[in-house]
Every structure is written in structure tokens, then in C-alpha cells.
Amino acid sequence: MEIDPLIFRLSIFILSIFVGYYVVWSVTPSLHTPLMSVTNAISSVIIVGAIIAGLSGNSESIFNTSSVFGFIAIALAAINIFGGFLVTQRMLAMYKKKKKDK
Amino acid sequence: MISANLSAIFYLVSGVLFILALRGLSSPETSRQGNLFGILGMFIAVTVTFLSVGNFSSGFIFVLVFILIGGSIGAFIAYKIPMTAMPELVAGFHSLVGLAAVFVAISAFLNPEAFNLGKPGNIKLGSLIEMSIGAAVGAITFSGSIIAFLKLQGIMSGSPITFKGQHPLNAIILVSIVILIYLLCSTQSSNLFWILLAVSFLIGFLLIIPIGGADMPVVISMLNSYSGWAAAGIGFTLENTALIITGALVGSSGAILSYIMCKGMNRSFFNVILGGFGATEDNSGATKKEQRPVKSGNADDAAFLMKNASSVIIVPGYGMAVAQAQHALREMVDTLKKNDIKVSYAIHPVAGRMPGHMNVLLAEANVPYDEVFELEEINNDFANADVAFVIGANDVTNPVAKTDPQSPIYGMPVLDVEKCKSVLFVKRSLSPGYAGIDNDLFYKENTLMLFADAKKMTEDITKNL
User: Per the CB < 8 Å rule, is B104 touching A70?
Assistant: First the structure.
């Protein structure tokens, strides 16, 4: 009997939770705010679903109810992706070490 | 058009890049590179999606247009936002992830053929379960984050909103969500789908209103976690590895941060979530308010004390963020350092309105991160320091947490500020902090209260140094 592909996805999911657990514990507490903004940005990879939805219309009707929801979701996720990564970059650029000789 | 197998491999690659992005945050040196990994991962995921759909018709242009619109709004916000507003920004961004998850789920429900999930009214059972869970969690994330945003922004009062029968009502709604998902999967009725969304929006709203302003670090972390689980739910629906990996990463990240924040307050997660903290304590605090003598001083006194010190520890809190005093503080510290005084910063885990909030503000003011210490690292040093300069913090320094088992904050880890030879406490008035309890520190022999706006006081001290 074949194994349902769902089981494979579930395995990836469970193992990723463990990876996340260990990786996040190793994040230094002073970077917890950038951690939140970057997790925000990467969770917007949900844009891939939005793109599929947006492209679901055919050439006669680009806009149907389903694709319109997709388009809005694309814009929302894009705000997050650009906003999240850029603000993280901006924050991380501020973390500096002590200058040795002054 | 590329094959499904090839695109699955690319999605896996972007999932791995996201793991590396988080891994980079283990130290500030590697963090910038980590962020680039994250951007690369996102770029790969988006490109592969275009290639796998392979439909470069006019719809494709619109996709790009919407990415451009969203992207410019996002970029604009990212450059304009002041660092003090970071909690609001993160709460706002969470709400967008939640809403995007809901919209993707709606699209998939209305047009399952585009996603290979079956036909409208006859969606594959597994996909429907995943889709409805993703949509429900997304909706909760959305409305919960909106409330958190409004509270942080000050548009809505930060004090907890409680009413009779709140908990039973929430419990009933949560149970009804489970029942709705069950019915939706057995009937495939679109009406049930809309009701499910409406009820989930409602519960997100109800869950967050009873939680007070200073519990926001927990709330933001929790919503961070929810946004991850919502993404994972949609990832299962779309059978997309990148989304599943990311969802799991973000979900566990948010959960860990919530745990750390709860531990910093010595409160259980359920205690925070059930809310209402600070509302009842307010009354008891007011009744037992007795007039005790405090020593208050001015900038001159403070400057004198610090000039004669050999080591100073700064304890920043939310008040510093409110007064935007971080730059003035850095200037004061620079002057101290010129006089060969050793200065370090002590940060309590729950200082501010989100995890790591104070660290970002200090970094913004050009404070080197190796002068900034966490509670466990620095707590023993207070006994050897000459001056503790408490600016905008209150409850996290209250010795009552160690001495009085009756106190609502008993057992919470606090900074041992009282062990310093002298304590300078910048505060606008004697009013109790968020927990509604008096701070014993105000009345100690060696405490000098500096009643003023944090920014103005710090500037005045610098002038007098």
C-alpha cells in the first residue's frame, strides 16, 4: 500500500517545529525584535498561494471573485515581505560593537 | 512551465534558507547575512511559483502590479517607522499575514480547481479541513492583531476590558468553531464557510480585549505564533513545502517568545491569556496608599552622585521609549565615560512592549550591544555598582517581588537595583506602575527620586556633569 503524501508533509511539518524550536532558542535575546520582524516577513511566503489564486483567471476574465481575493492577498503579503525584510535590515544595521580605540 | 517535482525541490531550498535566516540571528555579526538568506529564499519561492503556474498571460502583469503596490507601501513604512513604534508595526504586520491567509483560503474555497483541490462543492476532504483551519487561525490572527495594534497605538485604552461571562462566552465560541469546521467538512456548504470566518474574527477580537497594555509582549509573541500556524495550515492545503516549513518555524518561534515573556513575569500563559491583570489590583493599591517620605532631587544632585561614582548601571524601561529619551541617555553616558566611569545597561526580559524592544532602541541610539546585558548576566553586578539609574522602568525593579508573598508580582524575576549604593529613579510621579502596586524602592534610604520627563531630566543631568 502506498503512503499518503499527506504523511510526508506532516513529517516535514513536525520536524520543522523541532528545527524551529532549537534555532529560536539559540537566538540572542537582544535580537528578539528583529526575530519577530523577520519571522513576519518569511511567513508572508503565503504569497505563493496568493499568486496561484491571482493567476487562476483565464485570458477572457482575469478578474473573477477568486482571483480578486488572490490579488488583494498578493498586495497584503507584499507589504509584509518588503516591509518585514527592510525594517529588519534597518534594525540589524544599528547593532554595533564597541569601538576599540577612541 | 517547470515540473511539480522540480518546483517542490526549489520550495525546499527556500524553506532551508528561511531556517538559515533565523539561525543568523544567534549573534548580531551573522544576523545581516541571515536576513539576506531570508530575502533570497523569498525570491526563489516567488519565482518558482510563477514558473510552475506558467501562465504568463495578462493576469501575470496584474500580479506584478499588486506586488509593486504592496512592496512600495511596505518599503515606505519600513523606512519611515520610528524605532519606538516597532511593537505597533509588528502587530500591524501580523494582521496582514492573517488576512492574507484568510483571502488565500477564500480563493481556494471558491476556485479549488486552480489549486488542484477538486471541484467547488466537492473539495477533497483533507484539503478542506486544512483550509478551514488555516482560514480560522488566520482570521483570529487578523482581528487579534488589530486589537493589539489599536491598544499599542493608544487609539484603544490599554487597560483590560472585562465583562461578566467573558470566559464562558469565549469557550462557547471556540467550541462552536470546532463544530463549524466539522459541519463544513461534511456538508461543503459555503454558508458555513462564511459563518466560520465571521465567528473566528469575533473570537480573535474577544480574546485580546481583556489583556492589558503591559502584557502586550506576550500577546504580540502569541499572535506571531498564530500567524505561523495559519501559514502552515494554508501550506498543507497548497501542498507547499516552503509554506509548511515556514509556518512551523514561525509558529514555534512565537511560542518560545511567549514562554520567555511569561517567565519574565512569573505568570502562566493561561493567566495572561485569561487577562484582566491589573484591573482588580488597582483598587487595593489605592486604598493602602500611605504617605511615606521620599527623597527627591534635581539634575544637579544626580550629576553630583554620578560624577563621584566609578560604575553606573542603567535600567531602561517602557517610559524611556515613551519619552524618546534613548538618544539623550546615550549622550549622558558618553559624558560619564569621558570621566572614566564604567557604564553598562541592564535589560529585563519584559521591559518595553515587545521582546527585545529596549535593545533595539539602545542600538538605534548607537549604544554598542556589548554594553547591554540581560537580567541573568548583570544581576549580581548591582551589589558592586555605585549608582543605578532607573529610567522609565518600575515594576521590574520592585523588591516586593522577592519579599512579599502577598504581592501580585511575587516571584517575578526582578533586577536587584536596591543593592546599589545609590539609586536614581527618573519618573514623572509616584504613581504605581502597571501592576498597580507601590514600589518599595521609592522609599529606600539610598533612593533619590528625580521627578521629571525622562528626556528632559537626562539632558539636564548631562549639562550638569
Answer: yes
CB atoms within 10 A of CB B419: 17
Catalytic annotation, pick one of B340, B386, B395, B404: B395
Tell me the average pLDDT across B206-225.
87
Cα B362 to Cα B231: distance, rounded to the nearest angstrom: 33
Residue B26 with chain A: CB contacts under 8 Å: 26-28
Instruction: Please check whether residue B303 is in contact with residue B461, taking contact to mean a CB–CB distance below 8 angstroms.
Output: yes
Compute, in degrees rounded to 10, the torsion defined by CA atoms B244, A69, B207, B152.
100
Whether the pLDDT of residue A27 is over 90: the answer is yes
Nearest CA in chain B to A39: B250
- Residues in B touching A88 (Cβ below 8 Å): 35, 38
Residue-wise pLDDT for B56-78, tens only, equals 667 788 889 999 999 999 999 99
Binary contact (A45, B374; C-beta < 8 A): no
* Chain B environment of A94 (Cβ under 8 Å): 83, 360, 363-364, 366
Q: What is the DSSP string of B64-91?
A: HHHHHHHHHHHHHHHHH--GGGHHHHHH
- Segment B146-156, tens digit of pLDDT: 999 998 888 88
User: What would the pLDDT profile of B267-290 be if each residue is shown by its tens digit?
Assistant: 887 777 776 554 444 444 444 445
Using the structure block, give the residue that is written with the C-alpha cell 520627563.
Answer: B453
* Catalytic residue list contains B334: no
Please tell me chain A's helix, strand, coil percentages from 3-state DSSP, rounded to the nearest 5.
75, 0, 25
Closest-CA residue in chain A for B17? Answer: A42
